[in-house]
Amino acid sequence: xxxxxxxxxxxxxxxYQLFNMDGGTVLASGAIERxxxxxxxxHHRSYQGSDITESRHEQxxxxxxxxxxxIGALLRETGAITEISELSAIGHRVVHGGESFREPILxxxxxLQKIRDMIPLAPLHNPANVMGIExxxxxxxxxxxxxxxxxxxxxxxxxxxxxxALPESLYTEHRVRRYGFHGTSHxxxxxxxxxxxxxxxxxxxxxxxxxxxxxxxxxxxxxKSIDTSMGMTPLEGxxxxxxxxxxxxxxxxxxxxxxxxxxxxxxxxxxxxxxLKGICGVNDMREVHHLAKTGNAQARLALDMYCYRIxxxxxxxxxxxxxxxxxxxxxxxxxxxxxxxxxCCTGLETLGxxxxxxxNIIVSNAAFDIDxxxxxxxxxxxxxxxxxxxxxQTVSCIKNRGQTSVFSSPY
Length: 411
Ligand code: ADP
Hints:
Blueprint: E1 3-9, E2 14-20, E3 25-33, E4 40-48, E5 51-59, H1 64-77, E6 89-94, E7 105-106, H2 109-117, H3 126-139, E8 145-149, H4 159-162, H5 168-172, H6 183-197, E9 206-211, E10 215-221, E11 224-228, H7 250-259, H8 263-272, H9 275-280, H10 285-293, H11 297-321, E12 326-330, H12 331-336, H13 338-345, H14 357-360, E13 368-369, E14 378-381, H15 386-400
Parallel strand pairs: 1-6, 6-8, 9-12, 12-14
Antiparallel strand pairs: 1-2, 2-3, 3-4, 4-5, 7-8, 9-10, 10-11, 13-14
Helix pairs in contact: 1-3, 10-11, 11-13
The structure holds adenosine-5'-diphosphate (ADP).
């Protein structure tokens, strides 16, 4: 049995899933939260066929090293593995791969150093990813470990779309450009869309909408990303739970002058206090709907703004793609929120986008289509599975190891 452990290491959490890659099934999953706080939490699920066993342990977990030891111990105790050495590979989610990584890569000291070099580009994410890798390498030095980058799928975006209209030196010396994120999810649902439509991915033009707490849109031409709404950081683009998405950059300077907030405080305000939360006070879309139903004007405005921004991106990406085969909705909101999906598509009938209201309210864990008969464009709801995609990419990376160099050329 090929067993692959997927690790997503955050600043105070480690999420994980153990896959049996022979059947693509999940053997165990869980998360350690509140690392470093007085009481940490470890919740774990073991899967045996349709049987699920859950456990919750509350205790202090001092650091990521201790967290990973807990995970290894629980995987052994619950019989998911007998020894760590039974793992065929470990796949690590890494948020930022900059221009250095276009593909998953087997981790060695050189690769790890390059991931560390990306820390200035992703100071909120890459340090925790690096920590997870360092600890896993220490605890399982003989297991192949692979890094999978959120940015990699978008490395096919051409310069006219990834460059900002800023002085050249900011790009060449400071790496300022659009990188895009959620690449693992956009790639996964694009492949699933191709399977659903029974066409090769290389023949398809798609707009994929990942609408979760974070949200981004991607324009995919012939299976490759040619533009995406997140930018140098995940702040740009669509309105998100707590991130503002596109705003006039001059607002930051205006806020600095008029409110006296520091640049760190403004960064935090735009990332953590804005988006849906900024407009109506709550960041969870279900709560926004709940407020809107009670007549809350701010919640209604938040929904209007949220869907309007998505619609603008659909229009823009349709224009750059020229021909569009399908729009794909994914992420917690994209997969579950029929109201948002309908609102984003309403009025686009002249573009050949026509949603079927009855199909749209279907609830399903599998992919389904929601386009009406008159629609020239397929409208699909596809559950994302970033962990499975990471596990699959980990397996193909270790199978291909040594065959090709995955470093792209330097700037
Ligand atoms: P993350 O980006 O953290 O992975 P998810 O993809 O799980 O987040 O998406 C979280 C969002 O999905 C939340 O705003 C949540 O309210 C929303 N969501 C989940 N289920 C539903 C639902 N049934 N209807 C509307 N929104 C939902």
